[in-house]
Design goal:
Number of domains: 2
CATH architecture of the largest domain: 3-Layer(aba) Sandwich
CATH superfamily of the largest domain: NAD(P)-binding Rossmann-like Domain
Radius of gyration: 22 Å
Order of helices and strands: HEEEHEEHEHEEEHEHHEH
Shape: elongated
Strand order of the largest sheet: 8-7-6-9-10-11
Helix content: 25-40%
Length: 276
């Protein structure tokens, strides 16, 4: 999303050719939906590098100059391109300008999973910096309005909510949820609100809670006392983040959590992080 913001700013000043991976088969450097914007004097984004990108940039600039039309071009990634991937990429070339930005925003938004991040502490801030560069539409929520940076990443929407758990009912269906507020009491309230929504609508596919196994054991007991069953509690992931990533620094946790979210987005079962 950071590259998209840069591309949109540049489109306000000059046209470009928007190159999209329309389809991909076999071994290829990037998947369908990947894009780059080719301006006369710059390139924003990437479709995977290598000779195929070099040729695509050259063709895009020809089309930008009016020397070739729009449309799709098939590239076989074999010896003729100096790439041994062996797959096939179909690239779509579209001339775009400032008037194209609203439609491009909608198109890119459809490729990003909605994600609600509860908590503006050190880990939350580190995680936002990582997620802003990944295919997630981040809604960053905290009960303290003062914790948000003056200039958050362009793709992140900051929201003050008091009580913080009240924001759960307004989340976009299909949202992934990460819970890491400044207090265990708030965390528990948010988890409970998520479980109630899952009981009612079953439309939050991932609910992750930061903390150790000891924290989750305490939360589990308290949530059982509030009437939630084992099947419902199994919907909560705690600890969060993939395993095998040592360290408790905010940046390390952020990378481990982002990796787990990418696993989930890809449709694979998230690999658990082994916490204390």
């Amino acid at each position: 999303m950071k590259h998209a913001a840069i591309a949109f700013d540049r489109l306000a000043l000059a046209p470009a050719v928007w190159v999209t991976v329309a389809s991909a088969q076999g071994s290829v450097p990037r998947d369908a939906g990947t894009w780059m914007a080719v301006f006369a004097d710059a390139v924003v984004g990437t479709i995977g590098g290598g000779h195929v990108e070099f040729q695509a940039i050259a063709l895009a600039r020809r089309r930008l100059a009016g020397e070739a039309g729009e449309g799709d071009v098939r590239f076989a990634l074999g010896p003729s391109l100096g790439q041994c991937c062996g797959g096939v990429m179909v690239l779509r070339f579209e001339r775009v300008d400032a008037a194209s930005v609203p439609e491009l925003r909608i198109r890119l938004a459809r490729q990003h999973l909605p994600l609600a991040l509860f908590g503006g502490g050190h880990v939350g801030q580190a995680l936002v910096e990582v997620l802003a560069r990944l295919p997630f539409a981040v809604r960053w929520i905290d009960s303290r309005d003062s914790v948000f940076p003056a200039q958050p990443p362009a793709s992140v929407v900051c929201e003050h909510s008091a009580p913080v758990q009240s924001a759960v009912d307004d989340l976009v269906p299909g949202s992934l949820v990460l819970i890491m507020s400044f207090s265990h009491a708030e965390d528990l309230d948010i988890v409970q609100a998520c479980l109630r929504r899952l009981r009612r609508a079953d439309d939050l596919p991932y609910v992750g809670l930061i903390g150790s196994r000891t924290k989750w054991a305490s939360f589990r007991h308290r949530l059982q006392e509030r009437g939630f069953g084992d099947d419902e509690l199994a919907r909560v992931t705690c600890p969060i983040g993939i395993g095998g990533v040592p360290g408790k620094e905010p940046e390390v946790i952020a990378i481990a959590v982002a990796a787990q979210l990418l696993q989930f987005r890809a449709g694979s079962a998230p690999e658990p992080r082994h916490g204390a």
